[in-house]
Amino acid sequence: MQIMKKSVLYFLLLLFIQKGFAQSDLSWQGYFSYNEIKDVSESATAVFAASENALFSKNLSTNVIKTTNTIDGLSGQTISSIYHSSTFNKTIVGYENGLIIVINEVDGSMLNVVDIINKQLPADIKKVNHFMEFEGIAYISCDFGIVQFNLTTMQFGDTYFIGDNGAEINVNQTALFNGFIYAATNSGIKRATISNKNLIDFNQWETIATGSWSSATTFGADLYAVDTSGNVQKFSVSSNSFTGFVQLSQPSLDMRVSSDYLIVTTSSSIYIYNSQMVLVRQINTNQIPESNIRFTCASVIGANIFIGTKENGLFATALSSSVNFENITPIGPARNNIFSLHVTPNALWTVYGDYSADYNPYPLDSYGVSKFTATGWLNIPYEQVLRAQSMTRITVNPSNENEVYASSFFSGLLKIENDVPTILYNQTNSGLESLTFVGPDYVDIRVNGTAFDKSGNLWVTTSRIKNGLKVFKSTGQWQSYAMDNILDSAIDNNFGTIAIDKNGTKWLSTSEDGVIGFNESSGKFKKITTGPDTGNLPVSNVRTVAVDTRNQLWIGTTKGLRVLPNVGNFQSEEQMTANPIIIVEDNLAQELLFEQFITDIAVDGANNKWIGTADSGLFLVSPNGKETKYHFTINNSPLPSNVINDVAINSVSGEVFIATAKGLVSFKGVSTAANDDLSNAYVYPNPVRPEYHGTVKIAGLLDKATIKITDIEGNLVYETTSEGGTIEWDTTAFGKYKVASGVYMIFISAQDGVETKVKKVMIIR
After folding, report:
1. 623 near 548, Cβ under 8 Å?
2. Domain's final residue, options 210, 228, 252
3. 524 contacts 518 by C-beta, under 8 angstroms
4. Residue 21: is its pLDDT beyond 70?
5. Whether residues 189 and 272 fall in one domain
6. Span 423-453, pLDDT tens digits
């Protein structure tokens, strides 16, 4: 009994961990795309839509749209099905990995149900395909069989393995008809009496039709099913068999009954039949103005049709022959898989093109560019970016926020002015060059890392050519630098990110030659690569470099982290050497991020390092790397994926933007860039109310400012020195105990003591 109690407590703790982080005092924000509609469901007054890993609903009476994502407690895994039970006012979300999340629409609480995940079955056959409700039980169709789930007790019941001899079988949909439960499977349509108490016995299920079937549903007094070739068939009770009703031109992706209509969806057409099985409406993709539409599902509520698409979100149109289609999708980025981003104090830019781990951009992506500001999202589609494909980096001119450059790992360099793409620089109108080893007639210009120097010149790297480093000068001239003497094989090399230090030295990450340093004033190229005498990197494949506020170069490779102690030694040291960071864990000395595939490094205003990895989430380490302050993963944070593509920080607000393979989130960091004076110093929250459990932030600071906090009688309760523009106070007296209610004085003074500021904060316990 004691063991059982411990197991229950452990399970409850896991549930709390899975749900609790969204309500913690860490401040997260989600920026998800809702464009890829996986499934829809409905009530009498609302439509519910599931995108790749987030949900939204629209109340048809109030027109209020509500979104739900990982910030609210959803999993970042891929959703495969959704069902809203009007009887229980609960929404059930099914995932490809077998996870089920039940959302109570009354209070928004969520229950993570992991019974299917925990089944001793191959991981690739746990996908949830469909929900069918009958007498308080949800019959869940999965890739292995059928599972019962009690909507009252929130407990699983029996599992039906209905394949031959009780084998697993792919069940796509179930339907209830004339006292039987019918299952559309990849091995025929099977049925059993719904009242049979022994349905776990595969012998109780009979096969009434062979072949592969995608759907089965009851419509009025009849049962309809569609096979995987798109043949819609009607069940004949007298002959106990199916007969053809209509042959679709494409396979059916979805068939359902809603508001007394039968709706069949293919990728290019939606067919809506009334109760007499008369086709009352057919909608084709070419009727919707947006290009490249692909349907996924559709439903009818009242007099309106709601249409899910593969990449364009959810549309609404009147059931009557209306030509008007309204996109009701919440505004967000074009896709969840953001490959790279760039943040300024006023805007966030994102691109979606990518390449594989070995820098292969194929198949080429055509997703455009997105921009987020205080007014919302602006998505610039592929049709407007001058046919630039696979855009992998984006850079804003620090002297002119209206001038933006997007790197294409195939098409060159795209210039965007005032949010309008204006020029695509390529081999015909710039100093950029195409790779040539494929042949003289094949154009492939692989621009990746870009960075502006202090003079307003844009430095550009181009992979797999001799003159891999180029500069687009503020005067409009291009200049190239040959790198075949410093690279072992220029045509085999790929460039990652580029960083420029305060001395104007360019640091280039490469796939084959480690880090290349270059300073045009001396004309010197230097290499930091593997080997104790040639740079001490763990591997020559470097993905990212970043210069911190102490003039150290942080180097992220596919096999770990290295730090160059001082970039200022570039001119004087013949061979520069990077070092690992050694930390002590469990009394053992070990290397920080040993053999981790590091995808990005961002330096915040306090010189902390935000380090993204290819499969282990996000790390925040102290300025010297000795202390890991946070390690965010899908298990302890709202991160939708442990695959971190890019990290960028708003230097003014301290907000840390994290692009993952399954969505963009941000963490409201407290490390902002230092200010020039104390005129904008402020305290938040103020007052601190009893329900608030976070820290007090004092922002707008100078670097190295001294902050002293006293009670109203002058007793010192806290003292620190700022690194960057913000500090935190946990409202304790030097970490010992929470201070009492009252007004507290905050004395701020610059490092030289010339400038001072006094602020107040009220704490209410």
Report:
1. yes
2. 252
3. yes
4. no
5. no
6. 999 999 999 999 988 888 899 999 999 999 9
Length of the chain: 765
Assess whether the previous peptide bond of 289 is cis (omega < 30° from 0).
no
Concatenated DSSP letters of 321-376:
T----EE-PPP--S-S---EEEE-SS-EEEE-----TT---PSPP---EEEEETTE
pLDDT digits (tens, 9 = 90+) for 285-318: 999 988 789 999 999 999 999 999 999 999 999 9
Go through 336-353 and write b for each residue having 16 or more CB atoms within 10 A of its CB, e for each that does not: bbbbbbbbbeebbbbbbb
pLDDT, average across residues 171-185 = 98
- List C-alpha distances in Å: 124 to 120, 173, 339, 480: 12, 18, 26, 50
What tokens were used for 238? Answer: 């007298």
Residues 55 and 147 in one domain: yes
Give me the domain span that covers residue 284: 253-328
- DSSP 8-state code for residue 552: P
Does the residue 293 lie in any domain? yes
Query: Tokens 């609903």, residue?
Result: 57
- Single-letter residue type at 284: N
Cβ proximity of 57 and 71 under 8 Å:
no
Residues 71 and 54: beta-carbon distance below 8 Å = no
Alpha carbon 598 to chain centroid distance?
17
Residue 262 lies in a domain: yes
CATH number at residue 268: 2.40.10.480
Of the residues 285, 305, 328, which one is the last residue of a structural domain? Answer: 328
Burial track 471-492 (b if 16+ CB lie within 10 A, e otherwise) = bbeeeeeeebbebeebbeebee
How far is the C-alpha of 309 from the C-alpha of 313, rounded, in Å? 5
Tally of CB atoms within 10 A around 284? 12
Which residue from 112, 108, 104, 93 is spatially nearest to 40, judged by alpha carbons?
93
Residue given tokens 């109690």 in the structure block: 5
Q: Which residues contact 326 (CB under 8 A, 6 or more apart)?
A: 315, 316, 317
Which residues, at least 6 apart from 104, have a Cβ–Cβ distance to it below 8 Å?
89, 90, 110, 111
Euclidean distance between CA atoms 217 and 376, whole angstroms: 41
